Amino acid sequence: MKKRKIKDDSFKYSEANKVKKLANSSLQSLSKNLNSKIGIKNERREQQVKKFGTNQMSVKKFNYFKKFFEVLVEPFNLLLWVVALTEFFIYLFNGQRAIDLVSSLVVLFMIILAGCVDYIQELKAYQLNDKLRVLVSDNFFILNQEIEDISTFNFIEASKSLIQINQNNLVVGDVISLKHGDLVPADARIIWQNNLLVDQSTLTGESDPVEKIVSNKKKKIVEYQNILFAQTIITSGKCYAVIINTGDKNYSQSILTMAEQIETQSDFTEGINKITKLLVISILVIIPFIFVASGLRTTNWLEALIFTLSIVVSLTPETLPAVISSNLKIGSKKLVKEHVIVKNIDVIQNMGSVNILCTDKTGTLTVDEIEVTDVVDINGKTSECVAKCAYINAFFERNLTNKIDEAIYKKFSHQFDAHSIKLINEVQFDHETKISSVLIKEGNVSKQITKGSVTEMLNIISKVVIDDQIFALDENFKSKINKLISNLNTKGFRVIIVASKQTSEIVHNDLIFEGIISFEDKLKPDIKDVLKVIYESGIDLKILTGDSLEVSQIIAKKLVMRQEESLIGQNLALNNQTKLYQQLIAANIFAKLSPFEKVKIIETLKTNNVVAFLGDGVNDAGALKLADVGISVNTGTPIAKYAADVILLKKDLDVLEQAFIKGRKIFYNALKYIKLTVASNFGLILTLLIGSIWFDFAAMAPIHLLMQNLTFDLANLLFVIDRVDDQAIKKPLKWNIKSIFPFVLVNSILMSIISITNFLVIGYGFDFFNLINQGTKRDLYVTQFQTMFFIESMISHIFFIFFARTARVSIIESRPSFVFFFGMLSFLLVPFLFTFISPIANVFDLAKPPLLWLAVLPGLIALNWILVESAKAIMVKKLNIWI
């Protein structure tokens, strides 16, 4: 799909330099660099509001009249306005017959019906987004005093000066108190903390909480150690922090603002626009020939003009917007039953075309939980001693927000009791050192227990214990350890090393290797089967995460993904579109990604694919907005749900896969309607063109054309409830305007062959050519001829729909839905009722045909079936395409 190209600078944070300066400021210079007092008294709040604004988010207004006008003047609707005015022109200058006025009003009704459906859906989407954008409004405690010197301020006693305030009323300079469980309401600089851990997964995708401190040594904005970002969560400890950004200047809100700047247009909408151009060009090419031929034949140029304008009306599928809108509306209601809420119904068509699904791993593929699989010594044997060491370390770490510590504690808490052991000192886990240590005293022995990642631990281990004997860690032992780790990694397990040392203080050298603990990410039940179905459905799965590469690779191995090639964000060729696309196709795992890198991946993949993106974090907003189908979950952040097109009530790939199948059915029925209707209409026009050259009278009267067109307008609304063959939706459906040409060309010729066969039977079999040329009762015979063409044309059109609606052998291998079948058959009564009920026949210039001619109709229906099935077999074999 074509969408506006995203420039690198369109996803830069406007406050980046300010945040960087404040993160690297000393506590003494913080007030100066912020250009505000630290701590705002109540009497100064109004002044701060005027200077910096409040923490309320700006809301984009919904222009009711402009939106309604826009849906009424969409490209295809403009064509319908021309058709409606044309029919009204015919009404005014052709005897002011009721049928002409009714036809004009019906087209207007179709425009307004489709417009109202689209308008109401846009209004509902806006109202939902408005609710999502206004984030949950909580109250927080702030310091009601100014801090003159942060370095000497007593934060322990600060609770006496706290007052409560709504988060929307926060201003720059406020000193806010945050504790475990709080959702950070605005960007803030930490000035005091105690054991502070923050979940930043909504921004970074990193699953483990990160430690926050007062100083900063990091260079990447989302990794600043002393900055709290809005929409992140305090998972442990407490802090005081100075508000540095509010409202739309918050980092998370800026991502949403940037996402809103992305202009998108659905692939299906582009297809409809191309169809509109095709019809307009066809009308401009064909109509002059018919007008000239009709004028030369009748020498009545006004009559020729009216006849030509009637053909213009017949050529246009007026119900297209109504069918599409109804199709999408019914589809969105069906998707609700699959636990899927569609905010933007236009993307339902795109859901049927998706061939690449990008998702994070946590909560989609896994249950966001890991468990211990084994604890082994250097010989690969399960070891109770290693298990006890690991448990003691996890017990005293007190960091049960860390999934590894939580898994160890959960596994061994019933087996060991550490309450009698005394903790002397500890060094908590750090993302740079990737190790954690505790110094404990058990009895009279002081012992250090350290656990951590393989590379870091092997650098500080110099010995190994085997059966209570200690040996130097030589190359042989190292090889043995590496082989154990390699075997576990191959099986898809995470591993960490446990080491110890008898010491009176914590040191990170000369430790003794105790053993290895292996973990596995718990996959969702049946996720492998779901993934198999997704692959069989022609959809490729790619993992896009801010988490570590190692964790993602392990999950990919367990899932047995098609391709386990992987890349981290910094290795992407972002400045070389061709190379980047090659990287993205070759690999299926992308880790340590920034929000901009996710956007570039989605944008590049869309070059030749229809891409869905499933994300629930603040950092996913840009990618959600840019994707052909942006999908969030009900538990996602408000910003992610705001940017998404679709919201899942359950974060489950099985639900999503079913939604894609539903999307394909909706897409297929819409495509079916377009191709069948356009082919049938062009067949009628081709027949009329041939008739204009062949006969010295009109093959079908203008009133018959309008009446037939009106009947089909109503009948075509049934397309939305037709059944779809399973084999037709096994793979993603693509909108290909080029596939319409052969379908329309072949089938319009077939429809003309049927009508010309009817002409030959009427003209020669029933001698109507002679009867008309003799001059006696010419008007009656011409009217009968036109009536027989009118009846045959309507019957051929409806049976053509039955036969051409499937790529399989119609009636025998594929049958329409019960309601669709009998609904269409009911419209077959229309030409017979109009013809054989005299008062109606007189109004519409119809005359009863020879009764024997009615026996010809079954033969024409059989010919219709033979021609369509033959063409179908050839096109499927040669072009591998039908609908």
Kindly list the characteristics that best describe this protein.
single chain, Calcium-transporting ATPase, cytoplasmic domain N, 8-stranded mixed beta sheet, alpha/beta, 31 helices, Rossmann fold, 16% strand, 23 strands, Calcium-transporting ATPase, cytoplasmic transduction domain A, 883 residues
If you had to describe this structure to a student in words, what would you say it looks like?
One of its GO terms (molecular function) is ATP hydrolysis activity. The chain has 883 residues and is of the alpha/beta class. Among the domains are: 8-58 and 138-260, Distorted Sandwich (Calcium-transporting ATPase, cytoplasmic transduction domain A); 335-365 and 524-658, HAD superfamily/HAD-like (Rossmann fold, 3-Layer(aba) Sandwich), CATH 3.40.50; 368-522, Calcium-transporting ATPase, cytoplasmic domain N. It is built from 31 helices and 23 strands. An eight-stranded mixed sheet has the order 8-23-22-21-9-18-20-19, sandwiched between helices. Helix 25 packs antiparallel against helix 31. The radius of gyration is 36 Å and the shape is elongated. Mean pLDDT is 85; it is low at 1-10.
Q: What topology does this entry show?
A:
Elements: H1 16-23, H2 30-34, H3 45-52, H4 64-72, H5 75-93, H6 98-133, E1 139-143, E2 162-166, E3 175-179, E4 188-199, H7 201-204, E5 210-211, E6 227-228, E7 233-243, H8 251-260, H9 267-298, H10 301-315, H11 320-337, E8 340-342, H12 347-351, E9 356-359, E10 366-376, H13 384-397, H14 403-412, E11 422-427, E12 435-442, E13 445-452, H15 454-460, E14 461-466, E15 469-472, H16 475-490, E16 494-502, E17 511-523, H17 527-536, E18 540-544, H18 549-559, E19 566-568, H19 577-586, E20 589-591, H20 595-605, E21 611-614, H21 621-626, E22 629-633, H22 638-643, E23 646-648, H23 653-694, H24 702-715, H25 737-765, H26 768-773, H27 778-804, H28 818-827, H29 829-836, H30 838-843, H31 856-879
Parallel strand pairs: 9-18, 9-21, 14-17, 18-20, 19-20, 21-22, 22-23
Antiparallel strand pairs: 1-2, 1-3, 3-7, 4-5, 4-6, 4-7, 8-23, 10-17, 11-12, 12-13, 13-16, 14-15, 16-17
Keywords: ATP-binding, Membrane, Nucleotide-binding, Translocase, Transmembrane, Transmembrane helix
Domain P-type ATPase A: 159-259
Domain Cation-transporting P-type ATPase N-terminal: 25-85
